[in-house]
Every structure is written in C-alpha cells, then in structure tokens.
Design goal:
The complex is a heterodimer of chains A (118) and B (117). By secondary structure, chain A is mainly β. Chain A has strands at residues 3-5, 10-14, 19-21, 24-26, 32-39, 46-52, 59-61, 64-69, 74-79, 88-96, 106-108, 112-117. Chain A is built from no helices and twelve strands. In chain A, the strands form three sheets. In chain A, strands 2, 5, 6, 10, 11 and 12 form a six-stranded mixed sheet that branches. Chain B is mainly β and 117 residues long. Chain B is built from no helices and eleven strands. Classes of the chains: A mainly beta (118), B mainly beta (117). Chains A and B meet through strand 5 and strand 6 of A and strand 5, strand 9 and strand 10 of B.
Chain lengths: 118, 117
C-alpha cells in the first residue's frame, strides 16, 4: 500500500524567511510519480510539480525548489524568501506507475498549513 | 496549462434532495476523471474513478448508489449525491488526468461546497 506522510501539520514563518515542507512516502512500486499541490483558501488545488521516480534531478522554479531523495524516500519542498501569498495548505501526493492496479490514483499526505506573516 | 471547471461552486439543499455536480475539462480530453471529498482541515479522500464510456470504480466504503457517477463524454463527468443528508455536507473536488504516459498529471477543479440542511 502507498502512504505519504507530511509530518509538519502547521508552519508559521515571517515574510522573507525560507521554509521547507517535508514529505516522506512509502511504496512498493519501482515506478511512481510524486506531486506537490497548493491549496489556497479558495479551495482549488494548484499543481506545482511532478517528479518521476526514475528522475532524481532536483528542480528549481523561481522561489520554489524540490529535493527528491530516493534513498530516504523523501520529496521535500522549499520556498525561498517566502511571501504572504504563499500562505496555503500544501499537499504532497504519490501515484503508482502504469501497469499497477492503482495506476493514476493519487495518495495524498495530510497537508501542511503554511502561514506567512508580514 | 490544463483547465478543469466545476459547477456549481456552492450548493445548499434540503435533506432528501439530490444534487448534481459537473466536472469539465475545458482544453483537453480526459478519459479518466477522479472525484474526491475533503472535510474541513483534512486531506483529500478519493471517492471514485470515472471512466469515459464505462462504469465508475468506487473506493472501498463509498456507496455507489449514493454517489452516482456518469462520464458521458471525454470532457464531462457528473457526480450526483442522491437523497442527500447533512453528513454528506463536504467539499467535493474533481480532477482530470492529462498528459502522456510518463508525464500524466491530475489537474483539479475549483471544488463544490455542498451544505445539506
């Protein structure tokens, strides 16, 4: 069975601070996909990134960066120089690869509530 | 990017009535859509997988007669909450899968807040 753990329930930072959101996953599949989504107060989930299990390259997109460590089954997300608009719930999710019975289904972590204070 | 819409965004109904929620992929075709439910301050729980032209696949514990899903076209899936009761009040979110095999991503609709009185 797949499992995603986001141990940080809530994080509070002051604007311009860097913040890292942790994500640890469990899966028996050799091919899988990892995602991060942002859910602002409006409720809509916004896609941030997708990472395939066979691609361990870290990625940077503006103030956002992701650290994928297969050896520790972690896919952490860092926001540099946080802004008030970054305040939201962030979800890490895992999807099984093609061929699996759960292909395409997303298993979500519990989410981390990030509050950035001015 | 891929856009998914949901309608209505908010609905209030009386207990015992049925409510239909529409999920549309606006700029891509989606053979598979997913329906999730989210309670306040909780994570998303997958309810069912909606497949175009075939029956939906429900997750364990989800009543298929209670939550009717119809995926009539490549851009539209509907969720009908039949004989709604207050415990069905929740935030319902759909998603549609887009992309090729190794680049597939689920894009989410804005959600529908259902309140059953």
């Amino acid at each position: 069975a797949q499992k995603v753990t986001q141990a940080q329930t809530e994080i509070s930072v002051v604007e311009k601070e860097d913040v890292t959101l942790d994500c640890v996953y469990e899966t028996r599949d050799t091919t899988y996909y990892l995602f991060w989504y942002k859910q602002p107060p409006s409720g809509e989930l916004v896609f941030l990134i997708r990472r395939n299990s066979f691609d361990e390259q870290n990625e940077i997109s503006g103030r956002y960066s992701w650290n994928f460590q297969k050896s520790t089954s972690s896919f952490n997300f860092t926001i540099t120089a946080s802004q008030v608009v970054d305040s939201a719930v962030y979800f890490c999710a895992l999807s099984e690869g093609a061929g699996g019975t759960s292909y395409g289904k997303l298993t979500f972590g519990q989410g981390t509530i990030l509050t950035v204070h001015p | 990017g891929a856009v998914v819409s949901q309608h209505p965004s908010r609905v209030i109904c009386k207990s015992g009535t049925s409510v239909k929620i529409e999920c549309r992929s606006l700029d891509f075709q989606a053979t598979t859509m997913f329906w999730y439910r989210q309670f306040p301050k909780q994570s998303l729980m997958l309810m069912a997988t909606s497949n175009e032209g075939s029956k939906a696949t429900y997750e364990q514990g989800v009543e298929k007669d209670k939550f009717l899903i119809n995926h009539a076209s490549l851009t539209l899936s509907t969720l009908t909450v039949t004989s709604a009761h207050p415990e069905d009040s929740s935030f319902y979110i759909c998603s549609a899968r887009s992309g090729t095999r190794y680049s597939e991503t689920q894009y989410f609709g804005p959600g529908t807040r259902l309140l059953v009185l």
